[in-house]
Amino acid sequence: MSFKSLGLSEALIKAVNSQGYDNPTPIQEKAIPEILAQKDVLASAQTGTGKTAGFTLPMLQLLDQNKSLRNRPIRALVLTPTRELAAQVHQNVKDYSQFLDIKSTVIFGGVNQKSQVSKIKSGIDILIATPGRLLDLNNQGLLSLAKIEILVLDEADRMLDMGFLHDLKKIMALMPKKRQNLLFSATFSKEIKRLANEFMHSPVLVEATPENSTVDAIEQKVYRVARPKKTDLIIKLISEGNWSQVLVFTRTKHGANKLVKKMSAAGISSAAIHGNKSQAARTKSLSGFKNGNIRVLVATDIASRGLDIPLLPYVVNFEIPNISEDYVHRIGRTGRAGASGLAISLVSADETTFMKSIEKLTGNKIPVEILPGFEPDPNASTEPINPQRKGRRNTGKSRPSSKK
Ligand code: AMP
Questions:
Q1: Percent of the chain topping pLDDT 90
Q2: Which of 172, 345, 346, 401 is exposed most, by the fewest CB atoms within 10 A?
Q3: Would the pTM count as exceeding 0.90?
């Protein structure tokens, strides 16, 4: 299957070729013709499947076909849960629209609104936004969504997890009822289906390859280890393996900061990325990581969502998530769009229950290794502990259908 046979225009095919893509990914094959046919689409696709191009390419084509609106009111809105994802989607939109007369901009909180507002005032066709800043600027009368033709909810499940449902409903009320709706989500939970029922018109369902086959493509390994020895073990693995571009997951922001300090002390350049970091600090860490100045990025689950780092070779679970689906999201950072990767988990006695429910979810038995000097503590309790004392429950079960 080629991009041309999906019905995309020459200008879009030229842009896709300039990105070095030869063929569409499965989600692109399925979603692009449906979107071009102006249907509402409910798509299950994770980051790494090529979903962004899956909605961006046909959206650009539809907007380009109807150029009647000369003063460029906002005609398409892409909502994302995080600032990083918003910035990445905008970069994709710019890349794919390079040969078209289409203007776009991105808005998110945590930075001054002035330049965002002046871009909107200058006239744009596509707006990429996080819900909070969008409502904020709307309440100040600085933008209008009255001419929206296409709405995209990207990573809708994460938006609900982050408590954006109320904001989403407010935003929908600001748009014309007659519009095309596209919803992308890693999972189809009850909440996602309910949301889709409320605002979509007979949506076509499209699914990328099932989550487990993504997992199958990634080499996975578990190191059983005593909890206090995890830091020394990760430093040993990274230094002796000469690993670079390592994404490490911790369960708490505090844990992320602590690990960065220890790694930096051991001479491994690293940075933390989480909700307590300013937007400027996050952007700086991410670009340092991408250009190779920072070897290790330590992230919490929410902060990591939507990070687009192509060909990421290593993911380390410094702590095991108690929500099994988070494991799938985490290791999905490697092996992106066909490239291979290695996912390592450091498992202490109290995390064995979590690891078992992950294996149950993915249907994979992950090979276990124990390194001399880093043996697990035979006397440690296997009772799960939860460093985040409030909020999540640590039952070792997979994600409950209610909010996380
Ligand atoms: P996404 O799932 O949208 O985050 O995309 C994941 C990665 O796949 C990004 O780095 C894209 O640039 C890349 N990508 C998207 N479409 C294709 C394609 N058809 N062929 C190869 N890589 C692609």
A1: 61
A2: 401
A3: no
